[in-house]
Amino acid sequence: MPRRREARPLAEHYGDLVRVALMEARPAGLHTYQLMAATRLTRSQVGRGMRHVRDVVAAENLTPITWTRRDRFMFSDDPADWIEYDKRQFRQILGRLTRVITGTLDPHLARYPDDEWAQLATAQLTGVRATLAQLAK
User: Fold this and answer.
1) N or C end of the chain, less CB within 10 A?
2) SS3 category, 135
């Protein structure tokens, strides 16, 4: 099992700046350029901070971070926002997984139908695909 990588001090610092900016903007959200202005960080630093917020800070503070085209990044207190964001994430993962199955595994099995690894991967991923399809509804 891979070990979780320890957060670097800069990522923690950027994450704290991003979290504070988002908390101050509540209930509104912020665009990336607004986060850059509020925190005086570069785009890549805001990205690192946002990853730290998603990986660590949101779980510690029990406040999910969401993103919408209209509101951008925000801490929302509305469970409906969380559910809609989760569903969009599942749809995105479902699309990527479907492309792996249809673009890689299906042709693999067509050429080598007795390949045990490809059969196992297809069987397992088909189950995951069905689960993601249900979660994305």
Assistant:
1) N
2) helix
Q: Give the pLDDT of residue 7.
A: 53
Q: In whole angstroms, what is the distance from residue 65 CA to residue 23 CA?
A: 11
Backbone angles phi, psi at 72, to 5 degrees: 65, -145
Angle at 84 (CA atoms; ends 78, 85), nearest 5 degrees: 95
What Cα–Cα distance (Å) separates residue 74 from each residue in 42, 45, 65, 113, 129? 19, 17, 6, 48, 29
Distance CA 101, CA 107 (A): 9
Dihedral of the alpha carbons of 103, 121, 96, 53, in degrees to the nearest 10: -150
From residue 22, alpha-carbon distances to 18, 30, 38 in Å are: 6, 7, 9
Give the whole-angstrom CA distance, residue 78 versus residue 105. 40
Instruction: Read off the amino acid at residue 106.
Output: D
The pLDDT score that the predictor gives to residue 14 is 92
> Contact 30/19 with Cβ under 8 angstroms?
no
| Summary mean pLDDT of the chain | 86
Predicted TM-score (pTM) of this structure = 0.65
